[in-house]
Amino acid sequence: MKCPNEAIEYMHEYLDEEISEENKELLKKHLQECEDCRNYFHELKKAIALVQSTSHIAAPADFTARVMANLPEENKKVKAKRWFRNHPFLTAAAMFFVLMSGTVLSTWNQDQQFSFSKQPSLVVENGTVIVPKGKTVEGDIVVRNGDIKVEGRVKGNVTVINGKQYMASAGNVTGEIEEVDQLFEWLWYNIKGTGKEVLDINENEEKK
Amino acid sequence: MDALVKLRIKQVLKGDQNAFGEVVELYKDKVFQLCFRMLGNRHEAEDIAQEAFVRAYVNIRSFNIDLKFSTWLYRIATNLCIDRMRKKKPSVYLDAEVAGTDGLDMYSQLASDIPLPEDELETLELQETIQAQIIKLPEKYRSVIVLKYIEELSLKEISDILDLPIGTVKTRIHRGREALRNQLRHL
């Protein structure tokens, strides 16, 4: 080629966008004069354009999922933290449940001993509270973790928690008779009790 | 974009895997494209691209957060591709049975001979010819050409990715261009 050696070098500088104004002018001038170099330059640019024209291909659809499946197991603590962050309502509900059951169970456990309301004329035999024949109990009786046998009369309510009540005849108790066996019934009984107390307080205040 | 990536990387560093999923989403096409142009085979390209991301995750602690993440990621991918190209052997045999099928071999996975609509065929052929010419380039020219003209990276980035002086990158690009000119001028 009769062209100056610099011509091709200038072409590459031009394609790298690093050509100086001066060399650009020289290249331009040379290309106008020399057909070989013009063709050469054209072929270079064509090759680049063709390479760039290869349509951009995208990764397969499940690509990310597959990468994630191949990652080593992540820290459990972080996993749990994210779960809590993503489910605030469930987290709150779970917290509530845990705290609630904690309270309920501790109260329940405190209540596991045999006890009954102190009323005169009650007799106790082997964990059974007996209202003897011919006697009358004025007021309510509550028996925890034991049975009650009513042979006499009770002027009030009878409540048995975790136990059975045996009655000589139904008319002997003037108030309500209630048996509470399970944890939830017991819970309900406690709630009712609290409700009643609140109402009583209100009533008392109104009376005043 | 860089700020977002940085944030995600920090979350990954704290152990949050989902944040890495978002990073994969951002870069999967570029990395896959890079591998495909370097290796010329979709299947292999996906394998290597997958591995590049897994390696990036495993080694995330060695990434300097003040640098460009894409450069680091491309570097991992490019190195994996170059490794693969060097010890290239057929990754599948046509006689081999396809996993999970009953007696189907790889011949059944090849494109059928039914002719495509003509112009579609022509672009496809052209694309394939060009890809074939890229694959024909010697490895050291191929990587710079792919990074420069398909990933459209700057000379500086290419020099960082390949860990070569800019001067060397330039020379390789020039030689690669010359080779491509020779191979593609009759098209």
Automatic annotation (TrEMBL), chain A:
Protein family per UniProt: Belongs to the zinc-associated anti-sigma factor (ZAS) superfamily. Anti-sigma-W factor family.
According to UniProt, the name of this protein is: Anti-sigma-W factor RsiW
Gene3D superfamilies in UniProt: Anti-sigma factor, zinc-finger domain
What organism does the record attribute this protein to?
Answer: Peribacillus saganii
In terms of InterPro entries, this protein maps to: Anti_sigma_zinc_sf (IPR041916), Znf_put (IPR027383)
Q: Does the keyword Membrane apply?
A: yes
Q: Organism's domain of life?
A: Bacteria
Q: Where are the membrane-spanning stretches?
A: 89-108
Q: In this protein, which residues make up the domain named Putative zinc-finger?
A: 5-38
Keywords, ordered alphabetically: Membrane, Transmembrane, Transmembrane helix
UniProtKB/TrEMBL annotation, chain B:
Q: Name one Pfam family in it.
A: Sigma70_r2
Coiled-coil ranges per UniProt? none
Keyword match DNA-binding: yes
What InterPro entries is this protein classified in?
Answer: RNA_pol_sigma-70-like, RNA_pol_sigma-70_dom, RNA_pol_sigma-W_bacilli, RNA_pol_sigma70_ECF_CS, RNA_pol_sigma70_r2, RNA_pol_sigma70_r4_t2, RNA_pol_sigma_r2, RNA_pol_sigma_r3/r4-like
Domain RNA polymerase sigma-70 region positions: 24-89
Gene Ontology MF: a single term: sigma factor activity
SUPFAM superfamilies named among the record's database cross-references:
Sigma2 domain of RNA polymerase sigma factors, Sigma3 and sigma4 domains of RNA polymerase sigma factors
The reply on keyword Metal-binding is no
Show where the RNA polymerase sigma factor 70 region 4 type domain sits.
129-180
A GO BP entry is:
DNA-templated transcription initiation
Keywords noted in UniProt:
DNA-binding, Sigma factor, Transcription, Transcription regulation
Provide the family line. Belongs to the sigma-70 factor family. ECF subfamily.
What name does this protein carry?
RNA polymerase sigma factor
Originating species? Peribacillus saganii
